[in-house]
Amino acid sequence: MDKQKVIVYVDGFNFYYGLKHDKRWRQYYWLDMVRFFELGMKEYQELVAVKYFSAIPDDEVKQKNQDAFFQANKQNPKFQLILGKYLKKEIICRNCGYTIRTYEEKESDVRIATQIVADAYKKNCDVSIVVSADSDMIPAVELAMEAKQRVFVYFPPNHYSSDLNNITGGAVFLSRYEKRFKQSLLPDVIHLDKYDYDLHIPEKWKQYREIKAR
């Protein structure tokens, strides 16, 4: 009998900030995304893709760390990176007139929704796993379910949405699977054959793991 084909859709910012929210979870920044979800597959399932949605930050250090994470995971062909945009945003205080310059991530929600619905209607998989606690995912989940797609929602650590939980009839809390996080950490050094280059875990991320180990 053919195995159920599974595609995972990861809201990268939701996932990252879920880990960042609690120092306990920051040690898992350097994560092998494909291995993590493959460890959760049933014997009758096959993970065909992990689609990871994000955008490149303007901060040079954050950009370098993020790129290392992307390059490490792109070693596995099942990891598919889909990028949106960061846009500058200015907020002016009505009381003092002070201007706060910040950045707003754009397009990822739309890209995730488009992929979920397209894969469901094209029958590219039997099961969709949406890793996010963003209720903006609800319309896409509803459309996929209308296409007779089996959809599950996985909440990143420290994130939750009652609306998403209710629409799917129950969700999975990834914070309950810390053992799987530990089993899915990437090596500190990864050799990139394509570039003949050794990729190292970002030093700050390595420190989080060393602190936890003490």
Short description:
The chain is α/β, with parallel strands linked by helices and 214 residues long. The chain has helices at residues 12-20, 33-38, 60-73, 108-121, 138-146, 162-167, 178-183, 203-213; strands at residues 4-11, 45-54, 79-83, 85-92, 99-106, 127-131, 150-155, 172-173, 189-192, 197-200.
In words, what does this structure look like?
By secondary structure, this protein is of the alpha/beta class. Helices cover 35% and strands 28% of the residues. The strands form three sheets. The chain has a six-stranded parallel β-sheet. It has a two-stranded antiparallel ribbon with strand order 4-5. Helix 5 links the parallel strand 6 and strand 7. The chain is globular and about 45 Å long. It starts with a strand and ends with a helix.
